[in-house]
Amino acid sequence: MRKLILATLALVVLTGCGQNEITLQTDSKSDPQDLAQFAIGPSGEYETDDFDAHEFLTTWNFNNLAQEERSKFYKETPLDDGTLLREYWFNAVETTIEVAPGVFYPAWSYNGQVPGPTIRATEGDTIRIHFLNTSSKPHTVHFHGFHAASMDGSGSVPEDEIMLPGESRIYEAKAEPFGTHVYHCHSYPVSTHISRGLYGAYIVDPKIDTRPKADKELVMVLNGFDTDFDGENDFYAVNTKAFAYQYKPIKVKAGELVRIHLSNMLEFDLINSFHLHANFFDEYPTGTKLTPANFTDTMIMGQAERSILDIRFKEPGMFMFHSHATEFAELGWMGMFMVE
Ligand SMILES: [Cu+2]
Fold this sequence. Notes:
The chain is mostly beta strands and 340 residues long.
């Protein structure tokens, strides 16, 4: 199963910078080097549109939904101290997702999507999660960030109960510290509950932000799927869909500041990485300081590690980004920026 994507002679051909899509063609080239350099990437077509990996990049607090629909999942209430109460309605539900063309995975999810909905607040706001478990297994919501022990979602203290099927509870905490965080289920065994899909990004913006202003912000959650349940991943991705941003590159503009909120929610593999071609980025580890710690083109991420990456592409063109754990790239964790 691990080599399924590569076990094909379909070839990836870039059709030029003026087009959105990369077309898949069979090429009759017989030169071994030509075959070597083009026989990478995706083949086949996704059968469903169950999850839009492009829309996910710029979606937080359900901002992709029309107001009436959005109000079922998200509500803002101004508080006397000038902060916001941000309420979210989360539902644990089992759902089948397509993780690579024609490959379906029985996921456990928040609100029917993997990754779960991105939560975004300003430092000092109050986050309140109305959690309902409508699935057949016990689940929780555990946030990275400051909170009371009773709100940990790990069952560490008696008042922090794990929610059985049909049960509901509220998790509440101040949004702090600022940074790019994650949330995930902490029911047991945790590796199963995370790898099945119960995680998402949790972004806390600094109250006073002295960083350069971003022109475009993108949410990326690195993940993988063990589709045959043998304890190793068979597919890898940014935002669930293998090769999503290779099929359809992410459009950005040369010179603008592109800020990526990057999280690594991969289970079973201890190390993941992010590598950008032909450009460098400022890296803010965990996003918890206002000055970058690194200027690099490659970074290593352990499990649940996060970072903010600020990129200004120097010139137009097609630029790859992928895991430099290159096996992961070959199995789906590979994409393109189309810089205009
Ligand atoms: Cu769970």
